[in-house]
Amino acid sequence: MQKPDSLIFDMDGTLWDAVDVYTCSWNNVFNELGVDIVVERDNLARMVGWEGKKVIAEIMPDFDDDRRTEIYGLVAQQRHQLIPEMGGTLYQGVKDGLKQLATKYDLFILSNCAKGIIQLFIDWAGIGDYIKDEMAYGVNYMPKNHNIKLLMEKHGLKNPVYIGDTEGDGEQSRLAGLPYVFVTYGFGSTEDYDLKFDNFTDFTDHFMAL
Fold first, then answer.
1. Phi-psi region of 40 (alpha: psi -120 to 50; beta: other; left: phi over 0)
2. Strand pairing partners for 196?
3. Which domains does the chain have, with CATH numbers?
4. When you count CB atoms within 10 A of the terminal residue's CB, does the N or C end of the chain come out lower?
5. 103/178 Cα distance (integer angstroms)
6. What is the model's pTM?
């Protein structure tokens, strides 16, 4: 793997755990609409990192696409309200690690989340000074490999790496032609990676030493 010029991070399962607030957003909307669906944390956790279309089909199998999309829009609105209030759990070492890494690399966040959620996370975590740009699935409803390429073109990135916590993250990294760095503490598992780390501090130490 060549020495990278930039680091592109997945968000959920890589930088923080916000499954509780995501679960709450779904259940609040279903309660308000009188929909007899209850989302459990453990079930939602296994969907972290999925594209939105796949998530809403899994959670609302009996609804048509238009109704699913309408409800998902309400869920996204709920998250805009709840994230500043509830936040999530920032993984140990992330804030200090990003501060260090930003002195050496351009840092980006790219996630399969709704539009606006990454910026809410950045503001809540207080990491705005370290992140150069972000890209969410909800901006254009395109897969991660496409959006990785958009970030590369926009910022002239030559040797970025993608850092994530699922097999899907690895697959999208490969499709974009990037090395994949896997963090084991998140929501998924995979054997297809270039490097892996069990905590963010070790990740930071490795890339600061390059």
1. beta
2. 182
3. 6-17+90-208 (3.40.50.1000), 19-86 (1.10.150.240)
4. C
5. 22
6. 0.94
